Amino acid sequence: MPPETERKRDAARPASNRLFLKISGRRLRAYSIVKHVGRRSGREYVNPASAYPLGDGFVIPILYGLGSQWVSNVLDTGRLTLVTRGREHALERPELIPKTQALPAFPRWQQRTLKSRGIENFLWAHEHRTAAPTIES
What we know:
alpha+beta, Pnp Oxidase, Chain A, seven-stranded antiparallel β-sheet, 7 strands
């Protein structure tokens, strides 16, 4: 992405995040909310995201690069909460996956958009596993 385009996008990010947070996480899938904890502050943060089911979890495109704070926080803490379609999902074991593995989870129109924007990185996080019950003899 050309530096000028990146600067314009970065300048618009706070306003667009505020707007998308108002409509995210509701019953309709269009946008979800990623809740994560700051790795240094311990504070909870929320970010709008587009997330779709993949395997035992959800996949989220990393639109602003691997240096995004939410990505660093989630990878450091190993967990996040995703609010999508009106439900909260406790997710763990985040991992970065290539677009070839991630794109099939998205609708065709969104696959085209992600490809045209040159999005290469995706975060896949898995549903929280509950411990298997122990059997006492």
